[in-house]
Every structure is written in C-alpha cells, then in structure tokens.
Design brief:
The complex is a heterodimer of chains A (about 180) and B (about 170). With about 180 residues, chain A is mainly α. Chain A has one domain (about 5-180). Chain A is built from seven helices and two strands, in the order ααααββααα. Chain A has a two-stranded antiparallel sheet with strand order 1-2. Chain A is flat. Chain A starts with 6 loop residues before the first helix and ends with a helix. The longest helix of chain B is centred in the middle third of the chain and has 39 residues, at about 60-100. The radius of gyration of chain B is 37 Å and the shape is rod-shaped. The chains are: A mainly alpha (about 180), B mainly alpha (about 170). The interface between A and B is medium-sized, with 23 and 21 residues.
C-alpha cells in the first residue's frame, strides 16, 4: 500500500482535474452544432448566442463536477432538443393560434408544448437517480431550458416563457413527489 | 469506474492501486531505473488525465498497461533521438576540428610563399628534377642512377636555399 501523502498524488490529482475539464469541454462541439443549426434555420441572434454561451458554461461545469450532474447534462440536452427541434423545423412564423377565448402565436404554442414534452421526459428519467432526484432534475431542467431556448428565441419573450412554464409544469410533480418522499 | 464518473472520493484508492502497477510495468520495460521512474510518473499522470474517457466495458488493467507501455515507448524513442542528436553534434564538431583554423591558414600561406621563393632560386633543371621526383610530373629522361644523383644534388641546393631564408 502506498503512503497517503505520496508526493506524486498531488500531481496526479491535478492531471485528473485537468483531464476532466478537457473532457467536459467536449460538450462544446454539441453546443456549436446547435448554434450552427439555429443560425442556418432561423438566423443569428444575440439572445441565441448568449443562451449558447450560458449552456456551454453550465454544461461544462456540470460535466466537470461529474456523477449525477454529468448524467443530468445528457438528459437535459436530449430533452431540450424537443422544443429546439420543434421551433427550428416548424418555422412557426407570425401566425396566431386561438382557443379557449385567448390567442397566442404559433411559436409560443410550440414552445409550450416542447417544454412540456421535455419536462415529461426529465421527470421519467429522474426515477433512475434514486438518491439524487432533486439534483438531477434541477441540473437537467436548466440544461434542457437553455437548449430549448436556443430554438424558442424565435417566439420572443412569450415563447421563451411558455417553454419554461411547460417544462416546469411537467417536472414540478416529480419534485413534489421527491420532497414528500424525504 | 467511479473516478471516471467524477467521484473524487475514489481518487486515493485508485491511486494506491494504480501506482505500484504502473511502476512495475515501467520497470520491466525500461533498462535504466531512472528512465523507468520518469516513464512511470509520466504514465500515471496521463492515466489520471484520461480516466474520464475510460470505457467501463474495457479491462482496466489492460487499459493501464496500454498507457504505461505507450509512455515507455515514447520515452525510449525520445532518449534514442537525443542520443543520435548528440552523436550528430559530436560528428559536426569533429569535422569542424578537421578544418584548418585561420591561424593554420596564415602559417600555411607564409610557408607556401617562402617555398615558392626558395624554389625560384633553384636552377630550372633542379626544379624540373624535383617535380619529377616528388610529384611524378614528366619523364626522368636519364638512367635511374643518374636521376638519383640529380635528385640528391637538387635537394642539397634546396636545403641550402632554405637555410639562406632562415628556415631549417
């Protein structure tokens, strides 16, 4: 057995953290691809760029930290792709959707539905992380929201808000269940 | 696997398990203990640097041995290259030493000038005899014994001329 204070241990630990950061930064390729798709499909925007930067920083930090948060990044990206893809592919334009005595733009509607679907997916996945459900849900929801917002920015503030509301609406029951279980 | 997933609590146990294994493999692959130590330390750092990319379906020991082997081979190549480089430098230095120095060139130039001056004082026959004897330029034209006598005479006059110029 080696000594607990082996002089090489500190060097190895630094190498481990550096390697972990380098590995975490690889998520940048996915973020870059999302930015590219968003730019080609709906044009460039400062909101999209700022969201992409926030997503890169958040996802890298979470992956570097590892464990549940690393899994949350994967799940969050997958879930966030639902609203992102919806908005990027459907080209909602400026049409309005009216129902139940109110109207909203198609973009906001798609964002809401996309957020809802993302939330349902995350709530389902959260069951796999028995001891860290809250940690997983918070991390994955943030990543999913940022990913979705890169597409939902075309719906303006209303679209972005509806996406977040939809996602929260679907994940809140899972949060509540977990808090009650504790 | 836990460390690859970001569980820092697993660092120390993995370090304590990996280091003796890394050192053992490096010691077997390297001829000098100092090189083995260098390779082992480098390999250990690389191992921890890449552990996040570790595929849990792979055999951990084989993965570790692969990294250490690669590090040892790289170090061996580096050492060989450095040795070859050093040998090349020595060869260049030897070639440089074989070249006459500026001082040697000055001395050689002065001796040549004196030699030409001395030769200039000899009779044309003596100069021709010496050229034939020393450099094989032209035919002897006489019997060998006679030629030998002429060479001795020409060399005697050359020595005298050298002495007259204060050399020899």
């Amino acid at each position: 057995m080696e000594s607990a204070d082996h002089p090489l241990a500190a060097r190895a630990r630094r190498a481990y953290e550096a390697g972990r950061l380098r590995w975490a930064l690889q998520i940048g390729w996915i973020v870059l691809a999302l930015v590219g798709v968003s730019y080609v499909a709906v044009g460039g925007s400062p909101v999209s760029a700022a969201t992409a930067a926030a997503l890169l920083v958040t996802a890298t930090a979470m992956r570097w930290r590892g464990r549940t948060l690393s899994a949350a990044v994967r799940a969050g990206l997958a879930a966030g792709l639902i609203p992102f893809t919806l908005l990027v592919t459907l080209k909602c334009g400026s049409g309005m959707f009216c129902a139940l005595g109110g109207c909203m733009s198609h973009c906001a509607r798609f964002c809401g539905f996309g957020g809802l679907a993302a939330g349902v997916l995350l709530a389902t996945r959260a069951r796999q992380h028995d001891d860290h459900v809250v940690e997983f849900l918070v991390g994955a929801s943030v990543v999913a929201a940022l990913t979705g917002l890169m597409g939902c920015f075309v719906g303006g503030l209303t679209g972005m808000a509806w996406m977040v509301v939809g996602e929260l609406f679907a994940t809140l029951p899972a949060f509540a269940l977990e808090l009650r279980r504790r | 696997m836990r460390l690859a997933d970001g569980d820092r609590a697993a660092f120390r146990p993995v370090f304590d398990l990996a280091w003796p294994c890394v050192r053992e493999v490096a010691a077997r692959m390297m001829s000098s203990p100092a090189d083995a130590d260098d390779a082992a330390q480098g390999a250990l750092c690389k191992l921890f640097e890449r552990i996040s990319e570790f595929d849990p379906e792979r055999d951990a020991l084989a993965w570790i041995v692969g990294i250490v082997s690669y590090e040892c081979l790289t170090l061996r190549k580096k050492r060989t290259r450095r040795r070859e480089h050093a040998d090349g430098d020595e060869a260049i230095a030897a070639v440089a030493d074989a070249q006459p120095s500026p001082e040697d060139q000055v001395i050689a130039g002065e001796l040549e000038a004196v030699a030409l001056a001395v030769l200039g004082t000899l009779k044309p026959d003596d100069r021709r005899t010496l050229r034939v004897a020393l450099f094989g330029e032209g035919e002897r034209g006489v019997a060998p014994a006679t030629f030998r006598k002429r060479v001795e005479r020409a060399l005697g006059r050359l020595r005298a001329a050298w002495r007259d110029h204060g050399i020899g």
